[in-house]
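look at this record:
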Amino acid sequence: MRCFIARWAVAAAAVLALASSLSAQQPAEASQKSTNASQQPATAQQPAPSQRPAGNAQPQAAESLQKQPADAGQQPANASQAQPADSAPQPPPDAFRWVDFHNPKDQDVMVWVSRSLAVENWSAIREIGVKYDAALVVTTDRKTPQSLPEDDTFSVWSVSLTSHAITMLLGGVNLRILDWQHFADGFDNDLIAIYDDCRNCAATTYFTAFYYDYSQHAWGARWLRGGKGVPLENANQPSGIAMTQLYELAAEGDGHVALYIWSHLEYPKPKAPDDYIFRFDRDPFSGLDRTVELNGDELKQTKLRICRGQDAVEGLMRGQDSEICQQLVPRTERHPVTTPPANNHGRIGSSTPKPTTPKATSTTPQPNSNPSKPVQAAPNK
């Protein structure tokens, strides 16, 4: 009996040891399966090699992070750093670059752009500017192989570098891209430009600014109306009305710039003249294009400001020598001369030429330019 009880105890202990070993192996296998399952999606989500042109690495990483669906119980390690699409961070200064047509590293961008525009009418691609995933492209069209280059017409395009989507922004002749200017605090600078609508005619000169639209991942042009920018010099004069056109791209006190357009209309007597001044800039809260008509005291102060021309940027001003400005501002208060007289021979501060060997037949110095005459700087070409 005692022997039977001892054998039963030994068998029971063996069964208990076997059961404990089996229960220990099951969690280990389950954890190994869960580990393998968590590794499989990471391998499946690896992107295939892309044939798209190389762009800025930072916006591509942010875009891929936003497109990945979040797990119900898992958050990415850098989820706290992710930014919503409509509040993109300010780009670094080198986010925009002009493509070098001789650089082998830019050949993929050139091929991508030319294929995107293959069905459009153009003779040459003049400029390609890249910012993130979109290109600002300037093409020219020549009517015949014998036509002169100065007779070319231009078109400005927005070309997506992630798809072949294209958008024509505007077109004309004699495009002059000037410089980057700041129109609102807290937003990117815009690339300002002026152009004409025709050549060898009574042309109208237009002003616009190109910008990168974060919400659309594309380029745009500001203050467009009917596919054209802001008219600076309108060749179409109203019948029976004498119109004087003045403008100034002025530097504001808070660090940004704004464009002021002034139209002075004189009617047949006895009707009094009218003055219309519009300010073109960006809304400081939304960053959208803004056009404001001035009135009251602000209208009067802006008249004096335009006539003085002391805050002009990039030499963009016109009408400071007009009759209306001569009536408002004395000549001595207008934009001062910043260049030496024509006979100064490079010597700043001298109003007479350097004395030379005196001659018996001439004792009178050469006449000088009028130093009080305002000088209007020409826009950069």
